[in-house]
């Protein structure tokens, strides 16, 4: 397996993409707060819903730790809006339809299903401190473990 692009102790790659509201969001806008940046394959699929609802259910704890959650997938604005509304998600979903952010973090990878190979998001999360430094990088995570581990990494 290749080394992940983004390592603990490094500055998290900055980016600017749009949220589910169509507004541009920059990672650097969150300096001074911790950020759980998580990547998931597709809105409203079972694992992605488990992961998103896990972050929703622990959001009060996340906020107490001076942190925010940003969910990233290739889905568009409308799909994100529907997913956020359906599951009452209190955090921002980001549209990475060109997968530039996923590529910058090394989580746009070759996958295989039923013998077919295709490119897609590797479920992962990165916890970033107030200065923009990665304090946890977890790839190929299980949905529920991702939530537990990311929240624990906030300290």
Automatic annotation (TrEMBL):
PROSITE patterns xref list: THIOREDOXIN_2
All copies of domain Thioredoxin, residue ranges: 6-155
Keywords, in A-Z order: Antioxidant, Disulfide bond, Oxidoreductase, Peroxidase, Redox-active center
One Pfam assignment: AhpC-TSA
UniProt catalytic activity: a hydroperoxide + [thioredoxin]-dithiol = an alcohol + [thioredoxin]-disulfide + H2O
Superkingdom, taxonomy of origin: Bacteria
Listed InterPro entries: AhpC/TSA, Peroxiredoxin_AhpC-typ, Peroxiredoxin_BCP/PrxQ, Thioredoxin-like_sf, Thioredoxin_domain
EC number: 1.11.1.24
GO molecular function: peroxidase activity
Similarity comment: family membership: Belongs to the peroxiredoxin family. BCP/PrxQ subfamily.
Quaternary organization: Monomer.
This protein's name: thioredoxin-dependent peroxiredoxin
Organism: Candidatus Chloroploca mongolica
Gene giving rise to this polypeptide: bcp
């Amino acid at each position: 397996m290749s080394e992940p692009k983004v390592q603990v102790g490094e500055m998290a790659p900055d980016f600017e993409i749009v949220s589910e509201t169509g507004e541009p969001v920059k990672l650097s806008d969150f300096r001074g707060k911790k950020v759980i940046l998580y990547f998931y394959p597709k809105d409203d699929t079972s694992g992605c819903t488990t992961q998103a609802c896990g972050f929703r259910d622990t959001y009060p704890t996340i906020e107490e730790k001076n942190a925010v959650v940003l969910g990233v997938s290739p889905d568009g604005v409308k799909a994100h809006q529907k997913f956020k509304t359906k599951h009452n998600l209190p955090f921002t979903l980001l549209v990475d339809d060109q997968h530039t952010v996923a590529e910058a973090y090394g989580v746009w990878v070759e996958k295989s299903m039923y013998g077919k190979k295709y490119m897609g998001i590797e479920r992962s999360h990165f916890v970033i401190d107030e200065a923009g430094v990665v304090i946890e990088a977890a790839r190929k995570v299980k949905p529920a473990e991702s939530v537990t581990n990311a929240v624990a990494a906030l300290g």
